[in-house]
Amino acid sequence: MDDTNDYDKSTFDTPDNATLYVECIRLIEGDHIRRFENLANKFDLVQYELNDGVSKPLLFYAIEHNNETFVKILLDMEVPLDKKYSIMVPTTDSSEGQLVQKTLNAYEYACELQYNNIVNLIQYQTKLPPYEQRFFRILKYNDIRRCETFIHRLHNEKRENIIAKKGLFYAAQFGSVRLLDYFLTRWKIDINTQQIQDNGYSTTALLTSITYNQNEAAKFLLFRHADPSIKGQYDNALVTALHYHSKNDLLHLLLDKNVDLTARHPDYKKLNLREYCVLTNRVKAKSEIDAYIIRLISQGNYQRLKWLVDHGYTYINVNITSKRNGKQLAKERYYEKIVKLIEDVENIQMKAKIKMNY
């Protein structure tokens, strides 16, 4: 019978973390590498060491047995190197072999035992940049194989998924469609998963790609059914795209996805998005919004137009040419409901103007 899952054969169906940690120690002392990797994949021993403050971390057991393979595995897993362990060592100035207690970190412990190869491994690890910074650099190569190898060095399913989720946002930042597809497909990450930014606002992969003006990445995420209505620092994806001066083809796609046109820029709450475009001299963006309204009228989409009016967007009788507007287009297509809707909006606007004159 295969013994790779012996740690599951406890008297308890779900062993607690302390039991699993003791099993890790036993596997290191017995040099059972494969079984250790299987156990570490399900049990987050790094987080356990950080939270529990164990008296003797696993790295010290690996050093004690001069096991370079286990030391490499633990270093790849990013075990904390600042943990310390107290040992009794003989004093140098005593002929009677008197012992004194020393509290050492992993590097100092390897030096004390004079395991030079392990000393070099730990010294090299301490000089590396933080893990996430190294991951960021790996992603810049846009190489899926490198990325996969780097993630799997963590040897823990939970931590691998956490870093893969961060990778999705980095890929959106870089605009790498290849990496976006990799993280969404291979790691089954929810395309609408949210992450809190340093400024305290939440963001999605779609909003991140728009923020960094990664037009193709944003369009790819929309084709993969990313939700453009999720709000970030600048409301939904359409408002965010207008804020960051995204290209018109992305605005066109967002509008065709029926993202909420009645949303408002948080810095210009009294203006609708068309008025915001006029104020900020976004002529092409304003034209794209008007073109969207024209498409709704052409398609006879009364329900959507009515929804926009009911939610405060009243610019539905837009000019198509200098002599033709949305109302005339609706009459030509015999869309009587749309004609009446436009007339009702015009009547309300006319009454408001008369009232203001008084």
From TrEMBL:
Pfam families associated with the record: Ank_2
SMART domains in the cross-refs: ANK
Region forming the signal peptide: none
Protein's UniProt name: Ankyrin repeat protein
Gene3D superfamilies xrefs: Ankyrin repeat-containing domain
TM region(s), chain numbering: none
